[in-house]
Sequence to fold (326 residues):
Amino acid sequence: MRYYLEFEKPVQELETKIEELKRLSNGGNMKISAEIKRLEKKAKDLHSEIFSGLSPWQKTLLARHPERPYTMDYINMMATDFIELHGDRRFADDPSLIGGFARIGRFPVLVIGHQKGRGVKERISRNFGQPHPEGYRKALRLMKLAERFRKPVITLIDTPGAFPGLGAEERGQAEAIATNLMEMSSLRVPVISVLIGEGGSGGALAIGVSDRFFMLEHAVYSVISPEGCAAILWKRDGEIGAKEFAQAAQALKLTAQDMLAGKVIDGIIPEPLGGANRDPEAAAKNIEARLLPVIEELAAKPAGKLVEERYRRLKRLGGFVGAKPS
Fold:
């Protein structure tokens, strides 16, 4: 059974009817077949209409869709010869952040990404894609390994944020993230980041310092979740809900389109109609098509130039807009 978000309910009704007619028709009734084609076109048009005007909160819900492809799905669809590597050599392995060497097209690369997991058991084991410090230390160890062997680094970002639990803080969560930011800024190999779902705060930043940063069309990127933002702003006034979450999402400017307008990212990778969850293979092909020419371009640059251009790119991020001094 396909999972539908609330704003997709009109499409769900049509697609449910289409499935019922297909079972009745069995390919033999021409009248029913014609009706199916008519309804399929109507469903596609309705889907296009809905998705052409999604609000930031609706995009947030879509970025968290339980059927949306995760890092391991994209690795299986885009890469070959993937060998997962484990452990930070200090404390433990963190299954919420995975990484290993693979081949994308003709390029041997290191792929690192958050993994949320499917089903209750796996999601718990992967901590819902929220890494501990050892996850980020593992990522850095692998990136240093890629630097030693001169292989490009691809990071796939999809996390609500770094895990804020007591144990994570005791083991140095903030220090692990800060160290990654510092070390990634000076890696002497190409680093390309793709935000495939939700990018939450330092948990996303810790593997997001890169030469090129792309977002999938319906991904979101923010310093705080809309729910967290709404709780800070309006919780004291009473109960909060979807209205406040939508208001916070609008104010946070967290969509891929907002990020591109603010020059935080370098480009948007299109998704199939209805989101990557509708056609994961098409989404993977779109990502691969964007990655391959960028890997080729960056791999041709000397290490010193890569680091210098990365530094200049990071310096350009952000800014203040206000009244000019009198």
Remarks:
- Residues 30-51 form the longest helix (22 residues).
- The mean pLDDT is 91.
